[in-house]
Amino acid sequence: MKTKIICFDLDGTLIDSAHDICQSVHKTLAFFNLPSWPDSHIRKKIGGGLRNLIRGVFEGSEERSAAIETKFIEIYAREKFNTTHLFPGTFDTLKKWNGPIALITNKPEVPARELLKELGLMELDWSHIVGADTYPERKPSPLALKNILSDLNLRPDEAVMVGDGIPDMMSAQAAGVPAIAVQYGYSSTAELLVYNPAAFLENITDLIDVIHKIK
Predict the structure, then answer these.
(1) Is residue 9 annotated as a catalytic residue, yes or no?
(2) Which percentage of the chain shows pLDDT scores above 90?
(3) Of residues 9, 11, 16, 20, which has the active-site annotation?
(4) How far is CA 201 from CA 94, 129, 174, 183, 204, in A?
């Protein structure tokens, strides 16, 4: 069946935001006089959403975690545009796609929209922009994918999910949507291989060709 919509993850798939996220974590750690973590550890937590990132880097009570989360949000709001950029070829590749596209990210919707605007992606034909707080459930839940398919009256085999993280693979699998696993992002190929993606993507400029090969 022909692909009619491409659903994308954001961090590690369309944008390289790791440095700004890592710097925000480091500054949050310093604020609370906590020991630093290596960037490699933090990068592995990107994609699971803010709460999972906080729990993966910080330890403590729920009250303390909430305070840390609030401070991180405050710091990241200042840091998120410092070095974050599109992966090379992203805009042109999305522009070439003759059909709707959707964003499904575990970043809250407002900062996701701010990043899309800052990086020039808001002019594209987004059918949906879904953040961690848009629906009651976020990835790895299939809810966003299922809602998008329902809204557009599409079958699962008429969509693809493109992402670099385990939540992307799990949500696609649960929704019955073919997944394309990004190899240039923040998860290893071995981690993604477990979820049997329909294809791997070494460079986003190859995306349309890869879609045609699996469909």
Answers:
(1) yes
(2) 78
(3) 9
(4) 15, 22, 21, 6, 7
